[in-house]
Amino acid sequence: MDGNGKETDLEIEAGAGAMIMANDYGRQQDREDNTSEPSSDHFVVVKESFLREPLLLKKNRMNNTSQLAIVGANVCPIESLDYEIIENDLFKQDWRARTKVEIFQYIVLKWALALLIGLSTGLVGFFNNLAVENIAGFKLLLTNSLMLKEKYYQAFAAYAGCNMILAVVAAILCAYIAPAAAGSGIPEVKAYLNGIDAHSILAPSTLFVKIFGSIFGVAAGFVVGKEGPMVHTGACIANLLGQGGSQKYRLTWKWLRFFKNDRDRRDLITCGAAAGVAAAFRAPVGGVLFALEEVASWWRSALLWRTFFTTAVVAVVLRSFMDLCRGGTCGLFGEGGLIMFDVNEANPAYSAPDLLAVVFLGVVGGIFGSLYNYLVDKVLRIYSIINERGPIFKILLVATISLLTSCCSFGLPWLSKCIPCPPNLGDQCPTVGRSGHNKSFQCPPNHYNDLASLFFNTNDDAIRNLFVAGTDKEFNLSTLVIFFIAIYFLGIITYGIAVPSGLFIPVILAGASYGRLAGTLLSPFTVLDVGLFSLLGAASFLGGTMRMTVSICVILLELTNNLLMLPLVMLVLLVSKTVADSFNKGVYDQIVKMKGLPYMEAHAEPYMRHLVASDVVSGPLITFYGIEKVGNIIHALKITGHHGFPVIDEPPVTAAPELFGLVLRSHLLVLLKRKNFTKQKAMTGSTIMRNFKARDFAKPGLGKGLKLEDLDISKEEMEMYVDLHPITNTSPYTVVETMSLAKAAVLFRELGLRHLLVVPKTQARPPIVGILTRHDFMPEHILGLYPHLDPHKQGKEQ
Amino acid sequence: MDGNGKETDLEIEAGAGAMIMANDYGRQQDREDNTSEPSSDHFVVVKESFLREPLLLKKNRMNNTSQLAIVGANVCPIESLDYEIIENDLFKQDWRARTKVEIFQYIVLKWALALLIGLSTGLVGFFNNLAVENIAGFKLLLTNSLMLKEKYYQAFAAYAGCNMILAVVAAILCAYIAPAAAGSGIPEVKAYLNGIDAHSILAPSTLFVKIFGSIFGVAAGFVVGKEGPMVHTGACIANLLGQGGSQKYRLTWKWLRFFKNDRDRRDLITCGAAAGVAAAFRAPVGGVLFALEEVASWWRSALLWRTFFTTAVVAVVLRSFMDLCRGGTCGLFGEGGLIMFDVNEANPAYSAPDLLAVVFLGVVGGIFGSLYNYLVDKVLRIYSIINERGPIFKILLVATISLLTSCCSFGLPWLSKCIPCPPNLGDQCPTVGRSGHNKSFQCPPNHYNDLASLFFNTNDDAIRNLFVAGTDKEFNLSTLVIFFIAIYFLGIITYGIAVPSGLFIPVILAGASYGRLAGTLLSPFTVLDVGLFSLLGAASFLGGTMRMTVSICVILLELTNNLLMLPLVMLVLLVSKTVADSFNKGVYDQIVKMKGLPYMEAHAEPYMRHLVASDVVSGPLITFYGIEKVGNIIHALKITGHHGFPVIDEPPVTAAPELFGLVLRSHLLVLLKRKNFTKQKAMTGSTIMRNFKARDFAKPGLGKGLKLEDLDISKEEMEMYVDLHPITNTSPYTVVETMSLAKAAVLFRELGLRHLLVVPKTQARPPIVGILTRHDFMPEHILGLYPHLDPHKQGKEQ
């Protein structure tokens, strides 16, 4: 590197594509040239260890890095989160000045926010149920009354019409207001908690659409659940509360400055996700475990404790409101509003053949579950082509699926024969109200249609009917077969349309009907009740699609309130997950991957052990001096999309060139905005420390910070200098360039980093080799650089 | 550093205290002298940032480091575990050669071991219960029969005699065979999973004593539980199975070589700990959560899944054996053998005053809980003085406590008046068998002694009696007061004697009696049942002492099989934990600290932000060259107790001195043992790679590896050279010396390291500054160096 710092004139242009050869990049270029000797040395080492074509590789690599630079300059809707503590001088000053009162404020607020998240999510969960039960109940009562009058065509028109209107409203909300609200939302929340901030995924508009879209979608009779959307809703609520409400409407609050960083936001959103599950299933412990097992990527004991508090609040809120509604003051919202499938089985006795039957159930459930994932993936790919064509196409797709669902629900029950009511039920058969076991549908008095009891009901009620014990004869075998096939495929084709749609309920429905079917078929070999089989079938499908274990187990136990079937549920989950894992990934992981979100797995991939950190760093690396020319900074910010830049100190500031730290783009923008510039190179750190507070650099939400366009720098100012030392993180995590990539990946993932600095091994080199970001650890990137490491291709070659 | 490597003659002496100034240390000394300039520079930086007396500090620091070096040379019974993957050439060779069959073997074995751990722990858990129920049952029946004959003195003699014999046997086992088996064992397992391998904590002898000592201890009527010991037992079993049995008896197996590292051992032992809880409480989900929340320091999703499998196996084993025993073939072992407190409460209805009562219960429970911790700590300190005086004193202490316990159990019931049997109980009052609610004790026919029903029973039965619902009048207020006070203090003075003793049961007992007492007192204000109050009281005490939340909640739910009381249990746990946390730490953390185990907390202490990595590195640092003289290595191994040494390459091997990696003491010993030496400095890497396999360097259990004394190196060989490159970990984790100590601590803890290398910031310095180990992050060490940072002292000064 040239120590004299040959600062040439610099002209800032819009669309500076051609500028890449100018000052900064030129400096970088020099450095690369200077270091070509050690670099090739390094390649010799790599070659010795395993590479076959080092020269070709090097070429490939250079190409790729320049491509990356161009990609990086584009506006990217996905941004990585940074869980590292940015220890710059301002932070340290602020941290030292922090009083006991402020620490107390922070702790109080942390718990107050957890309380608020619990309260709000509980409220929304209750409201969601209340609305769904009332809308769907009204729809079913209307249709039922027409059916009783034998006006079948009008009944269908009313039924399908209601469904269509609700579906289209949900689709319009989704397509025009918040496209991010479509789907389950769990993959997005999972990705967020892994460190990926996708555009508007937790925005207030998304929250609004998620709540109302989910209500309309579920009420429209789609085979969708409200569980996934509730998780997303909980996360949105947490995000909104953590910001003190929407910034647009200026509700932010001074105390909340403590939470303006990615770490605290992560904690809040984890609480929110857990609260969502707790509200959806009325399962507080299950909610905590779900957040722990499926959603969160980082976890610590303190968080367990706070999440637990949040879900406890949710449970109390739900219970209080349900007590309020017990008097019948909530319209059609009855006891069954929130799912709680009371199987009421006594101690289930079982022996070896029963266990065999359960294992068999698990194996087949695992196969069906992984097939479900496979088909959902295919359908999503087709739908994404349709959905990309515009909002109108989205709405048309929703309308089509709604019509198809209505036809199935209304049409298929005609295939079933009317069954005479069993005498012991008395008045309960056929059911008069909107829910219940024995729907009369087209049947004469004192008869019921068993298929209608499943189809012509809300999803929750259908599950309840399937789970119930001691009713071996209630459903015909053919009924269960028809229902299972219909629901299995309806569930698959419904996920992916532009409506908030959870996967839990479709999977539980399909699994419960499969379980009941299997139980009926296996009844000669086992003494277990078909209702219990239905529950185990649901568990097997959940294990086969979502691949969770402990949390599903606890959620099912909390749903059914029977701990004694625990060993059986555990067994079936273990079997089905093991079977399904041998075919493909869990459905949420699959969706995360399909959406192209750069999810970091907890473990390093095996091929990473063949590489070292410097093999994958993407360039060109742009560095700043401790006291840098304003123009250089502006230029660098303009030509790249990078978010972190190493800061180098050179003589005369230090004896030799050395790495001072890492400065963030967002911090640079804040610093430049206030124009603390000097004509000469000078240490103005103390001035800056006086003029700024650490909170000025607090991280705003995605897309809300300062932008380069917000700066107004004159041509003279471009020639001035600014001292970057006070805002530079002096403790960035570093790895030596020869560090195994696998170990660097573990470091990156475990500490939740955004930038990992790669420093040189030998001393004769400039003090920084490059920066590793999330992107550099992605299989696509690594295997793009080193295609021969691809395990799939290797298999084919051999 | 002198590049010429002035190798002087070296004489190896026994007790080389004076040798510290010889070759290696001399080299180190040179380096320190050479680097004094940048070092003082560095101190200026520190001074600028916050230090008041840098000179004094520096002096202090030098003293301290030399002291440390001497301490390090002593034999230390505690060793840190290393969860880092040691990526040296041999590992890489082995890793690349790994076939698909081997990977499959590994996965199969992992699950097979989980299965075996589950089976064995389940078996041991059942055996434990069977033995306790039979021994204690026999003792109680014998005493009862004497009581019925009104031979009160003989009855007392029989009762106290049985207790004394059992207690002394347990104490002899503990004192002479395995002192590590005394106490709960949970703190030790927790420390192990944090990375601290204390002497013989998981040895086969410990396992043996833990199983039988726990049986005798519980049967001897001590106020101790079998839960902690079961956790320890599970961990011991897992360790033993992971080694393929005891090495002494040569049961080790080829396949198990995959598990000869600290990472896989950690996973197995986590499974074992979870299995222990599951076996003790018959609570499989609770077991997993307990392991997650309290015991494990590192966790990942894959482990959740395997732990869950293990506890499911435990549940199935226990259930099968209990089914076997249902016919009465297991002697006095009845249905109640394994704790399962069926409260059988229907939906508990509650309103605002009830919630207030529960909050009050939680507050007082939290205070009592933290007081319990405080008193246990004090008692443990007194007992450790007694216990240190020798095994005889240990046994005498056990005998004293046993006599005291017998006196209490037998004597206190005389304070209670006889209560006439309620007519509705019929034949059930007074109880004839060994367990039951209404013990007759000294009372006339058709009367019972309510205090005897609690005291004169096994602990499990006493808890069951307290938890039972709908029996408001069964116990007098005075009875509950006496029992609560007696059990509270007996529990405190019993923990710490030389007998395996769990803390769960004493705490649950005290909490349950407190809860019942509170429930009786609060009955005018609340409609909640006293049995439910008893359960909530137990929860409040558990929350107040152990500070777990989710796992206690789930364990209690699994024990009582009533999910509907979940919100109340959550509430009381939250309140009591919050209250207790404001007084002191959890009981297990307290014991870990008292035992001096260097436990690494998950978060960094605030004062660490004031320091940088180089402020705490302990020296003198001993480094090796890539090709090193055998004598130097032997000397270094002799004069220090360090387990890792940086390896430096110098010209002509490299252009400039550079850090090649880190070599471990254990690996050096293996290498030296085979004597692959050369007369001249030469790269003999390929020879070594041929002669060794990676498995030769697999980590044996603590204290089982090669020792320096096992080497037999002649005087000529001392002058020869050995190539350390193939066994050097080329990817050690590093931090720059100016890295904030807090961030270095997070890195160290999150990645589970044993050595963290500190590299210099400037290039004019030798390539390594020092090594951070667990010791360097301990508050004692840091605050010893920088006493003015001590938050307690600061408070006093101001």
From TrEMBL, chains A, B:
The keyword Ion transport applies. Gene3D superfamilies: CBS-domain, Clc chloride channel. It is a multi-pass membrane protein. One of its GO terms (molecular function) is voltage-gated chloride channel activity. The keyword Repeat applies. Keywords: CBS domain, Chloride, Chloride channel, Ion channel, Ion transport, Membrane, Repeat, Transmembrane, Transmembrane helix, Transport, Voltage-gated channel. The chain crosses the membrane at residues 111-131, 152-178, 198-224, 268-292, 298-317, 355-375, 395-415, 480-509, 521-542, 548-575. It comes from Acacia crassicarpa (northern wattle). This is Chloride channel protein. It is found in: Membrane. Belongs to the chloride channel (TC 2.A.49) family. It holds the Pfam family CBS. Residues 727-791 form the CBS domain.
